[in-house]
Amino acid sequence: MKYTVALKSTTKPEWVSAVKADFNAFLQNHADCERKASGMAQNFIAKYPDRLEILDELMAISIEELEHFRQVYKFMELRGVYLPQKMEKDAYINTLIQNSRTGRDERFMDRILMAGIIEARGSERFITIGEALEDEVLSKYYIQLGRAEAKHIHSFIKMCSYYFEDDVIYKRLEELLILEAKIIDSLPFEAKLY
Fold first, then answer.
1. How far, in Å, are 56, 100, 144 from residue 138 at the CA level?
2. Where in the sequence is the domain holding 172, given as residue range(s)?
3. Calpha distance 121→15 (Å, rounded)
4. pTM of the shown model
5. Do the domain assignments include residue 73?
6. What one-character DSSP code corresponds to residue 49?
7. Each residue of 143-188: pLDDT tens digit?
């Protein structure tokens, strides 16, 4: 099994323009997203401590996402940009999560698959913005970050394979990818990762 995610919608040029028009706001949002991603991995550990096969991978993802937060925060410091007083709610993530099924196993599968989809979207957008930036240091950073985030896609889909059959995983993944495309295409173009 290849454990991949093929997004159904690509990021539009209008999103790139919005990010470039207010890159400092994008950095703030990106920092928040990295903190949330680290917390999400820790949350899986807290909710599913009995899923021993995935605990080490979740710990590694949490640490790596926290390191990404530190990296983006250093770019913020160089530009005199500070963390916002409060982390905003994320319409993209919240709408995805609202579509999680109930039931312990079903919700677990949905949330893990959604984490893989979110990583896929983040990877795509980091590479997209990296290729559009004129600043060589930031461009290189975002392209490398996009490639690093792509590894997490594989990790999250593989986590499901310990507990569910491949055909069940990919059937639900396909449904969630269609939903994700509708959500991402419905959002306004803002200087935010999602």
1. 31, 35, 10
2. 13-186
3. 13
4. 0.95
5. yes
6. T
7. 999 999 888 999 999 999 999 999 999 999 999 999 999 999 999 9
